[in-house]
Design brief:
Layout: H1 4-9, H2 17-38, H3 44-54, H4 57-66, H5 77-81, H6 88-126, H7 135-146, E1 152-158, E2 165-172, E3 175-182, H8 185-204
Antiparallel strand pairs: 1-2, 2-3
Helix pairs in contact: 2-3, 2-6, 3-6, 4-6, 7-8
């Protein structure tokens, strides 16, 4: 957690920059390995785009904010006073340092588990698209074709701003057909649409649809 600005004021201490370097490499490999194994239909260029969005400073800073990592940083007085605890670049570097520390302590299994716990939902979201796992689009097409109605969504959030959790329900003709949760409104709606799609397809006898989910239905 030691930023170089703090080390400049506390001679003899080592900053987290070397850990950032290692963590960046571990993060990239874990995400790449997960994409390769989990999404066999994604082409090389598509995987590259997903990986780039996940390992970006903006995404990492967002995750660091959810963990309130900024409050644990060791910053120089000037950096602290200028809002360093909220700077995306500093937060992104800090979470890479944490990943490296976990990797050094627990090896690949521990680092992989941490990364996928923190970023798994975002990877799944970034990997969706037309013809893939875009459950909202598929549900809309299914409902229009078989019921001639459009699904509607209600989303509520809970928790502090840095750690919001969203819950969604999807209705067809005022009937709640699916529920879902996620770290963003989009994730929650996608999860609810998947649940509703599974239910609707079972009701109309389309059990072999690609929308079917092994995750099962939420009650």
């Amino acid at each position: 957690m030691a930023h170089r600005s703090w080390c400049a004021e506390a001679p003899g201490n080592i900053s987290n920059e070397r850990l950032e370097f290692l963590g960046d490499a571990v993060l990239g490999l874990v995400v790449t390995d997960h994409l390769y194994r989990t999404y066999p239909d994604l082409l090389e260029g598509e995987m590259a785009k997903v990986r780039a969005s996940i390992v970006s400073a903006a995404t990492l800073a967002e995750v660091a904010g959810e963990l309130d990592l900024g409050s644990a940083l060791l910053l120089g007085k000037g950096e602290d006073a200028s809002g360093g605890r909220e700077k995306p670049s500093i937060l992104a570097d800090a979470i890479e340092a944490v990943i490296a520390a976990v990797y050094l302590d627990g090896g690949w299994p521990a680092a992989s588990e941490l990364i996928l716990r923190l970023l798994g939902d975002r990877i799944a979201e970034a990997s969706t698209g037309p013809g893939g796992q875009d459950h909202k689009t598929r549900l809309q097409e299914l409902a229009a074709r078989h019921l001639e109605v459009m699904p509607t969504y209600d989303v509520v959030d809970e928790g502090p701003d840095h750690a919001k959790h969203f819950r969604a329900v999807v209705r067809l003709d005022e009937r709640i057909l699916g529920r879902g949760e996620g770290r963003s409104k989009k994730q929650a709606e996608q999860a609810a649409a998947r649940d509703a799609g599974d239910t609707l397809r079972a009701e109309i006898g389309l059990r072999d649809s690609p929308l079917s989910s092994a995750a099962g239905q939420e009650s």
